[in-house]
Specification:
With 245 residues, the chain is α/β, with parallel strands linked by helices. The protein has one domain (10-243). It contains ten helices and five strands; from the N terminus they run αααααβββαββαααα. Strands 1-2-3-4-5 form a five-stranded mixed β-sheet, with helices on both faces. A hairpin with a 7-residue loop joins strand 1 and strand 2 (102-106). Helix 1 (10-33) runs antiparallel to helix 4, helix 1 packs antiparallel against helix 5 and helix 4 packs across helix 9. It is elongated and about 75 Å long.
């Protein structure tokens, strides 16, 4: 039996999707606007850029921005998208317990849901912490004399059951299985992408503009800081900045 048996509120889910997309682009664009070349270059490998025979500031900046957007967008999207949509889909509430994102009460049962993005988020330490968080939430449910069902839900991907080892007392569901558990609708995971409709397209121009401004700014800063008068990259200065005492 699913948490919701085909009774989810579709308009509320669509509203949550719109808010999540707006938050995603606002945060990503704001991060682009705050970039500066020194902060970025402190975390990058200058030897790799030299090994790839990069000769221009624009080449390096393009590589920096591509890597920045690639790493940032997954993190930001995971933080702002799946949790509010899971809350709306399950008609639940934001949980107050640590390590639990959504709480849903149905009849005499409390569902404690930890919402994750992809299926590779846990290491041994974070798994143990998640178990501890569920155990603490379980005690609260027991005090209220309610059945407790802990779930780790992954917004996308597939999760196979563990082959061996100590069985978990919480369930792990990913992709179609997770969204079907929340809504009772086996096709909800497909509908979720349809609910975006044309919303992403309205942010394209603003994102492209922010990206180009960031590129221009970083090229200018890189040229002033790490290029010689003739325009060539001053590799020794760049390496010294990055790695020197």
């Amino acid at each position: 039996m699913a948490i919701n048996n085909n009774n989810y509120n579709e308009p509320e889910v669509i509203k949550a999707v719109a808010v999540a997309l707006d938050d995603f682009y606002k945060i990503l664009i704001a991060k682009l606007g705050k970039l500066n070349i020194k902060a970025v270059m402190r975390r990058k490998n200058p030897y790799l850029f030299r090994a790839k025979a990069m000769k221009g500031a624009s080449q390096i900046v393009d590589a920096l921005l591509t890597a920045f957007v690639s790493s940032s967008e997954e993190t930001i999207f995971g933080n702002v998208f799946f949790e509010p949509i899971a809350t709306a889909a399950a008609q639940g509430q934001k949980a107050l317990a640590e390590g639990v994102d959504v709480m849903v009460e149905r009849d005499n049962t409390v569902y404690a849901i930890a919402v994750k993005s992809g299926t590779s988020v846990f290491n041994s330490s974070s798994k143990k912490k998640q178990e501890q968080n569920f155990a603490a939430a379980q005690k609260l449910a027991q005090q209220a004399k309610k059945r407790f069902v802990p779930i780790v839900g992954y917004g996308y991907g597939k999760k196979n059951p563990p082959k061996s080892g100590r069985p978990k007392f919480y369930e792990e569901l990913a992709g179609q299985a997770f969204w079907a558990e929340l809504t009772g609708d086996e096709d909800f995971y497909l509908k979720l992408v349809r609910f975006m409709e044309a919303l992403p397209e309205k942010y394209v121009e603003e994102f492209d503009s922010a990206y180009q401004k960031a590129a221009n700014k970083l090229v200018r800063e890189f040229t002033l800081e790490f290029c010689r008068e003739d325009g060539s990259i001053y590799w020794e200065k760049l390496v010294k900045f990055n790695s020197g005492v």
